[in-house]
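Field log, afternoon session.

UNIT: design team B
ACTIVITY: writing a sequence onto a fixed backbone
BACKBONE:
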């Protein structure tokens, strides 16, 4: 398989670069700039991309790399910091720019370059830099400029080295994707063999070889990743797959039944549902502190989950989980070590570490090389229901972090019903795809109201809806008033125990997406 290396110098767009490369059907992997050059040589990459980074090449504590990388005979593309690094390694002149550029900037192509095949002479690119290349190194020629950047792109075609000061990977660079495509196909001469159909075939065959006639146990949460992993494993080994689904009673309305039906009807496997809502409620009785609630839910979840698995594994089974590629990078294997490395990304709820008293034949992660949207493509190709494949993120502690204060069966019922109305109205109005996440919250507040001639004193439900790229920051969504009105009307009419609905207009920061 053809591979491109994205060598990570701590830039915020490193995953995006890899995503873009994969969109062109070439497998890309991200490694930190601390990766030894021998490992890079041995991996036979078709090309290497140096990412941007938050630092200055003048600062010797910034990420640098062995200059011998430029001589290994593999085409290289430097982006932003990566571009300056190439100039610096080859003794060009890098300086603090008299005018730093940020945002959309006009680019003028001034030389022949395979990078710019099919790119007009004048176009817009996305810039974000304070240093610039004042003089390119010997052997390099300038092929594009901007008003304040005398070397916006340079090249040394004889050595296959290209570098751009701007960010071709972001969509604000109008022809950025074309430039990346040119680098991959015209400079690196890739053919494009990373296709999801062949991924499924190859993975299924490899899983069959690895698992043989043994059992494989998967923790199924009903989320996208574990569901797609279940689909792949089911295709590979059918009934040898045991999926354990812990229903802690904190899922959305009817969700547990939906998951059960999907996997028992559509797929060949052994499906084990552990209903333990009552146990969770007992443990959570009287607990109001958000952190303590999270801790109890998580501990209890693992306890139930591993107890169930312990009864089944008996040392003679594989353990599978739905971890995906960003989970690996986020856990510090990407930009780790980079001075002022890229922002810390939230680590998500996963299966935790395997208890020491359970032995498995091995751990299988069939999605470990995929990005989220690739996982979704695989899910659709495997025939998983659309609503499962395109499901919004749902937190591990479930409705537990959407009920402020003590959790009771009654509050869960109210919240499930209110949340159902919200989802129903959003779907009816075709609005759900426009938002990253939306849900109802049981606020714990009570309000006075009037119904007929009677005074009421009932619960306040909040609606929360956000748009975001990465959930690190988020904006509250401007849902049309008509939809909000319909939701409010229906919740106060249809859900017993609610007499008031409010809309949360807090961005993140200072708020978080969830209320607890
Ligand atoms: P916050 O509330 O931190 O949420 O702004 C950001 C995103 O993360 C989800 N979230 C969680 N996911 N376990 C999870 O798997 C958790 O404990 C958890 N807390 C929040 C949240 O739904 C949102 O998508």
């Amino acid at each position: 398989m053809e591979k491109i290396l994205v060598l990570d110098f701590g830039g915020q767009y490193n995953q995006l670069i890899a995503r873009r490369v994969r969109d062109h059907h070439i497998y890309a992997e991200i490694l930190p700039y601390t990766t030894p050059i021998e490992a890079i040589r041995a991996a036979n990459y078709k090309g290497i991309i140096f990412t941007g980074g938050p630092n200055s090449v003048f600062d010797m504590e910034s990420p640098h790399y062995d200059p011998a990388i430029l001589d290994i005979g593999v085409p290289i593309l430097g982006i932003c910091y990566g571009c300056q690094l190439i100039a610096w390694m080859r003794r060009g002149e890098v300086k603090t720019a008299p005018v730093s550029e940020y945002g959309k900037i006009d680019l003028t192509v001034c030389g022949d370059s395979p990078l710019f095949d099919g790119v007009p002479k004048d176009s817009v690119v996305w810039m974000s830099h304070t240093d610039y290349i004042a003089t390119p190194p010997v052997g390099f020629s300038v092929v594009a400029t901007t008003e304040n950047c005398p070397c916006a792109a340079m090249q040394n075609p004889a050595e296959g080295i290209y570098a751009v000061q701007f960010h071709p990977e972001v969509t604000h660079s109008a022809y950025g994707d074309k430039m990346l495509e040119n680098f991959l196909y015209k400079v690196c001469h890739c053919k494009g063999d990373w296709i999801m159909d062949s991924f499924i075939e190859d993975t299924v065959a490899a899983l069959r070889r690895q698992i043989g006639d043994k059992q494989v146990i998967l923790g199924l949460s009903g989320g996208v990743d574990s569901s797609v992993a279940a689909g792949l494993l089911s295709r590979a080994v059918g009934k040898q797959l045991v999926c354990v689904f812990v229903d802690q009673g904190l899922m959305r309305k009817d969700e547990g039944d939906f998951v059960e039906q999907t996997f028992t009807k559509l797929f060949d496997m052994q499906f084990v549902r552990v209903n333990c809502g009552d146990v969770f409620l007992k443990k959570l009785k009287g607990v109001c502190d958000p952190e303590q609630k999270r801790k109890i839910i998580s501990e209890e979840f693992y306890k139930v989950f591993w107890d169930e698995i312990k009864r089944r594994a008996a040392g003679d089974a594989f353990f599978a989980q739905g971890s995906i590629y960003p989970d690996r990078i986020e856990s510090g294997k990407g930009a780790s070590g980079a001075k002022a490395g890229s922002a810390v990304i939230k680590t998500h709820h996963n299966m935790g570490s395997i208890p020491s008293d359970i032995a498995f034949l091995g751990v299988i992660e069939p999605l470990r090389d995929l990005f989220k949207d690739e996982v979704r493509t695989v899910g659709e190709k495997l025939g998983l229901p659309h609503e499962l494949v395109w499901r919004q993120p749902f937190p591990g502690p479930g409705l537990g972090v959407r009920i402020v204060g003590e959790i009771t069966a009654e509050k869960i019922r109210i919240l499930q019903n209110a949340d159902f109305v919200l989802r129903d109205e959003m779907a009816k109005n075709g609005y759900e795809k426009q938002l990253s996440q939306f849900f109802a919250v049981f606020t714990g507040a009570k309000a006075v109201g009037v119904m007929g001639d009677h005074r009421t004193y009932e619960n306040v439900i909040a609606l929360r809806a956000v748009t975001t790229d990465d959930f690190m920051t988020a904006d509250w969504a401007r849902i049309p008033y008509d939809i909000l009105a319909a939701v409010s009307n229906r919740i106060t009419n249809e859900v017993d125990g609610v007499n008031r609905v409010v809309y949360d207009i807090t961005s993140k920061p200072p708020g978080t997406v969830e209320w607890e």
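LOG NOTE: Residues 3-187 form a domain with the Rossmann fold fold (CATH 3.40.50.880).
NEXT ACTIVITY: expression trials, pending approval
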